[in-house]
Amino acid sequence: MSSAPTSTTLSGQPRKAETLRQTRTRVLTASFIGNFVEWFDYAVYGYFAVVISEVFFPDSKNKLLLTFGLFAISFLIRPLGGFFWGHLGDRIGRRTALSWSILIMSAATFCIALIPGYATIGVAAPLLLLACRLVQGFSASGEYAGASAFLVEYAPADKRGRYAAVVPASTATGLLMGSLFAAVSTAVLTDAQMHDWGWRVPFLLAAPMGLIGRYIRNKLEDTPAFQEISAEDEVIKAPMMQMFRDHWPALLRAFGAVLLNAVGFYVILSYMPTYLSEVVKLDSTLSYIATTVALITYIGFIFVTGSLSDRFGRRRVLMAAAVLAVVLTIPAFMLLNTGSFVVILLVQVVLGFALTLNDGTLPSFLSELFPTRVRYSGFAVSFNLGNAIFGGTAPAICTWLIATSGSQIAPSYYLIGAAVVSFIAVALSPETSRRPLT
């Protein structure tokens, strides 16, 4: 008689473990797709910036700067999106926020492909482009923070860093596919074809990818941590207000910690092909190839650094990233300007590795820095403020710094400044890797 419950329990445990494993796999897939779509869009916009500038600003002497200016302006709305999606994610649930954000983001990206050029509709063309990028920036502001919180709250306690590393890996994969698409397009298509329709194709791909991501997310339950506070009636009506009132020190530290990620990601991985082709005068196809190889190694390093942060702690890994950025950046930019393809490739790989120490650790660090009731809000606000002010503006600021100073290594000083601020912010923060989420 006593063996029956034991048999049921033992047979039930594998089924429960298998169900949890399948759920975590779907969570990883859904989180990956959403961020992939977002950064694939940013990648193709950055990599096709020269073509886009000629389509939308053909008569301007500063058309490339205007194109990157639009890129930067679209980031300025991200803090508003962070407030909106953070409130929605902490008030109603992570799944709801993520399902809607990917739908709106994909639609806005798709619409960019349909905008006629300046030659067809005049000034309305750049205005429509700005409108689409504002909507895209608003919706995308919930992706990185929401996906990170989602993964951390589903992950085993000792693997939160590794699970959260999927988010920066997906962003790098989006950049990688954008780089590959740009490299193939510039090699295969003529200049006339690129200006006519070639640059539009990658934006069209956002629609099917976004629908797939939304479908997977709608099939998931909300995270165990959010379900726990819901069951205990601890979901608060005004998470933003509580975050600013009770958790503002953590918010300030999070904002500072974000700066190296914000500047480094867009300078090293997004702006770099333009820098190599326009400043170093490297062949555009070779510049895309170099960035592509760097991105492949970056993706591999990401999961290593996520695991390192689980073993050695978030603070040690994040501070090591800041130190390496300070030490390596100026010599790296000097070597980039040698014009040697092999040297450029090695420099990008080394810079990418240093950046992964920050990027692979930051999602778990920011998620753990805030309690469950305000986790989405704290992450979304700090991350999107940092990226709006310092990240999205990085390509435009780098272009302006080079133009005004006449120094080809001027972007390195911007990156070093961000690294110093991040080091101080992390040094003042507690170690979060071994703290319980609830």
TrEMBL record:
UniProt keyword list: Cell membrane, Membrane, Symport, Transmembrane, Transmembrane helix, Transport
Protein known as: Putative proline/betaine transporter
Keyword field contains Transport: yes
Organism this protein belongs to: Helcobacillus massiliensis
Subcellular localization(s) per the UniProt record: Cell membrane
PROSITE patterns given in the database record: MFS
Ranges that cross the membrane: 64-85, 97-130, 163-185, 197-216, 250-273, 285-305, 317-335, 379-403, 409-428
Lineage of the organism: Bacteria, Bacillati, Actinomycetota, Actinomycetes, Micrococcales
Gene3D superfamilies the UniProt entry points to: MFS general substrate transporter like domains
